[in-house]
Every structure is written in C-alpha cells, then in structure tokens.
From TrEMBL:
Gene that encodes it: SNAPIN
Pfam families: Snapin_Pallidin (PF14712)
Entry keyword set: Coiled coil
Source organism, top-level taxon: Eukaryota
Family: Belongs to the SNAPIN family.
GO cellular component labels: acrosomal vesicle; axon cytoplasm; BLOC-1 complex; BORC complex; cytosol; manchette; microvesicle; perinuclear region of cytoplasm
Keyword set includes Coiled coil: yes
Coiled coil ranges: 29-63
Name of the protein this chain belongs to: Biogenesis of lysosome-related organelles complex 1 subunit 7
C-alpha cells in the first residue's frame, strides 16, 4: 500500500533532525503496567480471602444459632437475633 504523504514526512523528520528515543518511555510504561498487574493480583487474592472468610463466618453463625436453639434458646442476658 502506497502512502502518498510518507516521503515528505520522512524528509521533514530528517530536516528537523529530531531523534526521539522512545525506549525510556516504553520502559516506563512497561514498568507501570507490571506494577498495575501486581497490585491487581494482590487485590484479587485479598478479595478471595475475604470471600472465604465471610463464607466461614456465615457457616459458623448458622452452626452456633442451631446449637443455641437445640439447647433451648438463647442464654440469659443475650438478645436473640
């Protein structure tokens, strides 16, 4: 595919003698991406641990309520929920 504006742009770039080195910017972007991925993984792991903890707490709550009800109700001084 021929691009009609390619040669003039190349000549302009050569005339200006502006050599943009993009490597430092690419490295910064890759480093930022790596850190974002790392933080995302940490957050996902924390969210999964919280989900499992919440599930365990709910199971324990049901188990304790069942034990209390089987023992004849809530003990004196504790409000029933």
């Amino acid at each position: 595919v021929l691009v009609p504006h390619e040669p003039p742009l190349c000549r302009i770039n050569e005339d200006q003698k502006v050599a943009l080195d993009l490597d430092p910017y690419v490295k910064k972007l890759l480093n930022a991406r790596r850190r974002v991925v790392l933080v995302n993984n940490i957050l996902q792991n924390a969210q999964e641990r919280l989900r499992r903890l919440n599930h365990s707490v709910a199971k324990e709550t049901v188990r304790r309520k069942a034990m209390l009800e089987a023992a004849g109700g809530y003990p004196q001084g504790l409000p029933g929920k």
